[in-house]
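Tutorial handout. Part one gives the primary structure; part two gives the three-dimensional structure as tokens.
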Amino acid sequence: MTDVLLAVGTRKGLFLFRRRAGVGPVPAGGGWQRIGTHFTDQAVSALTLDTRSGRPRMLVGGDSAHWGPSVFSSTDLGASWHEPGRPAVRFPAGTGASLERLWQLAPGSAVEPDVFYAGTEPAALFRSLDGGESFELVRPLWEHPHREQWTPGGGGLGLHTVLLDPRDARRVTVAVSTGGVYRSEDDGASWAASNAGVSAVFLPDQEPEFGQCVHKVARDAVDPDRLYLQNHWGVFRSDDGGRRWSAIEVGLPSTFGFPVLAHPHRPDTAYLFPLNADSDRVPAGRRCRVYRTEDAGRSWMGLTAGLPTAEHHGAVLRDALCTDGNDPAGVYFGNRNGELYASADDGESWHQVAAHLPDVLCVRAALA
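Part two.
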């Protein structure tokens, strides 16, 4: 077992937990200790734990009701924080836009340790070349002719997914709610809609070129061309890097939900947290269950050991389900009830790490 750092972004701040390896028998609660609480006056809607340099570096997207959104960084597990002297993410003059919220913070490739990406509301992609000190708008996506036709989903109009192809960092996949999936093969110089096969049941044309309400996309650990997609009604898989999608819904209690997560090591393995419906956003059947596939979505199984058995209402948002790099993998989720759960065995069994937190918006884990 390896030390794990768990970062939890909530409606009222960032909570940090740590589980240390080699400390004897694992006590109730899985051996987790809360090691810090930060930004309690801000909503933390985006964060990343970057381990490219060995020690986790945190980037946090905070949103103050008074000061607005900002990016904070720490290289000492939250003992100190740095905020740039000027806003790290801001829309250039002439765009007619201003930053409303950070939806995503993601590290660049392993060979570019100072590169980070940010997804924002209004929906746009930004890139940093200086470790998150400053970000520049990726203009070709912002200037794409589809953008002006994107419309906000229930939570706003945000770019929430950034995936780099591990074989070639110039291949970037992003997802927008509600715009759909877009791919670039040339480091962001041009973009193509990649939604063929993804339904949009709320539109007159239910299979449009773009306009799908994609909730999250994840990449398979072994096959970089295999992607998993949780849609606003529908779960899909692509075997060609997102060019075409097929439904993978057999065995699920509902096809509505927000997160989708790929296992960090095992091929064909992914996780979901289904909800009842877009009009009833509670766990499917009002039961707290994570679903896992081990055959790329041909079948799904509910994982319940250690999770609440009574009627449950804690929905899990798109970035509130995550994994670490352990093998077997640690899997973690937080919900809108303020509960935090962890599994140290690929999801086979669970224990509660914390309760009564504020509304959980995002969760990230890293070996530390």
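Part three, for discussion. The helical segments are 139-142. The longest strand covers residues 168-177.
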